[in-house]
Amino acid sequence: MLEEIKTFIAVVEYRNFTKAAEAINLSQPSVSLHIKHLEEYFNVTLIQRSIKQKNITITKSGKLLYERGKQILELLEETKYELMDYSKVIKGELRIGASFTIGEYFLPAFLGCISREYPELKLQVTIENTANICKKVENLEIDLGLIEGKVPSDNFHYEPFYKDKMVLAVPYNNSVAYREFLKYNYENQTWITREEGSGSREYLDIFLNNNNIVPKNIIVFGSNYAVKEAVKNNLGVTFISEHIANIAQKNKELIIVDTKKEYTRDFSYILPKNIIISNAAKVFIDKIKKDFNKL
Q1: Cys-Cys with 20: which of 14, 38, 144, 257 at CB 3.0–4.6 Å?
Q2: Could you read off the pLDDT of 244-284 as tens digits, one per residue?
Q3: Model confidence over 21-31: pLDDT tens digits?
């Protein structure tokens, strides 16, 4: 039964019998037979096939078995390590997803500490915007996510672990823009920001709405580094993490402008609800709650 479940998971993830067979080194007839055995055992249809079997659709029952199957495999792996007396050694692979601000500016130093403390733990990191990281956690493509801003779904267990301040930043070499902001002349500015679905864009929108600002123009970039470089080169101004702005200000690239009111957002870790998490994930979460503020 375990091999059949592994086969089914591969079919769901590749959405194709032939590709799944190649990935797990089975013949296509063997893959089809494994799926048939599962459907007979559970007395449900797991996959809807087209006549030529070129396109497949995962049924509601299939999606449930996929989620449970992933959890079963993870639990078996965890049990194997416990039975082999791995209680004092964290091994295996941990798949982490992080939004751009966290992944680009905070996570490398933190992962360096994790790797030194747990050298036998293999870390796999995905960096995308907050919306995409949430989707990957929900689809069990990654073990846990680190996101900025509001958690957009009730499908997660989550907990904040860091308070990030957002600041207004203008070009370092543009004293005119600096004086304009001191007068709160926001309306005539071009705003440099991230795409919809990112935590940074969410908080720019909050800042603009709170101050009744209708921006003259918004230019969107796909990374925080590109946003910082655009402002540095006088394309506009931005609302960005204080951590990023402080580095840029020290390098004489941006100037932080006082907004009078303080704007903060949470960094949170997210997990799918109702799953058993690995020891590696537990260690990672404990350490991020304890040590992240020290970065």
Answers
A1: 14
A2: 999 999 999 999 988 888 999 999 999 998 888 888 898 89
A3: 888 889 988 98
The answer to whether the CB of 46 falls within 8 A of the CB of 58 is yes
- Those residues whose C-beta lies under 8 Å from the C-beta of residue 61, and which sit 6 or more positions away, are 42, 44, 45, 46
Please, what are the domains in the chain?
2-70 (1.10.10.10), 92-161+266-294 (3.40.190.10), 163-263 (3.40.190.10)
User: Distances in Å between the alpha carbon of 113 and those of 26, 119, 172?
Assistant: 40, 10, 33
| Interatomic CA distance for residues 39 and 33, integer angstroms | 10
pTM of the full predicted structure? 0.67
Nearest residue to 180 via CA among 107, 101, 96, 255:
255
Q: How many CA atoms lie within 13 A of 19 on its CB side?
A: 12
Tokens of 255: 């100037």
3-state secondary structure at position 93: strand
